[in-house]
Amino acid sequence: MKKQTVLITGANKGIGLETARQLANAGYHIFLGCRDKQRGDEAVSLLHSEGLTDVELILIDVVNEQSVQQAHDEVAKRVDYLDVLINNAGIPGDFPQPATNTPDETFKQVFEVNLFSVARVVRVFVPLMQKAPNPRIVNVTSDLGSLALHSDPTWRHYDVKTAAYGPSKSALNGYTIALAYELKNFRVNAVNPGYTKTDFNNNQGYKTVEEGAAPIAKYAMIDKDGPTGSYFSDYGVTPW
What we know:
It contains 7 helices and 8 strands; from the N terminus they run βαβαβαβαβααβαββ.
């Protein structure tokens, strides 16, 4: 039986790498998306050393249209179609991010990676995914993108307000809804890994990387009857 294929962006470390590990262990063929060849090679070598040999590097810089197109062309040379796309690449931006004093450049950088680049990668790769029997897209979001949670003073992260990062994930959630509506033969969902201890947050999270990657891997593996156009965390549906 042909192995299903998955491309994960920003996958050379942290949650992206662990998601690759979990999906490789589940029998998927992994295209490990990374913009830096040396770091990507190191990540691939690490997984190979663990016996996960169905992992190969795809160079992709999500903010660069030419790089995304070249990554698509490389994947298309190797497979007839792509089953799963996980848009994991993201940045927090410089902190703090007060609503009244965050520089324009911070907004531009954060939205470029967290929203515009996702739309770019989707636009380029969807034609290759259309041929798959059950195409799935997972957009890695954050609970800091939940407007409902941010409006609830009892929420554990209520005081964590960010002018650029959180709104970039709110926008990603909105894009996910529009994408799921348009791609009716796909399963498209936004998935929140939670506050995970990685370099992304200076290792401040309370979740392990294994815990953070688990819901992403879960919704990457759903079948044709699985949910679409939804927002999930490890505890289930997250309020928009």
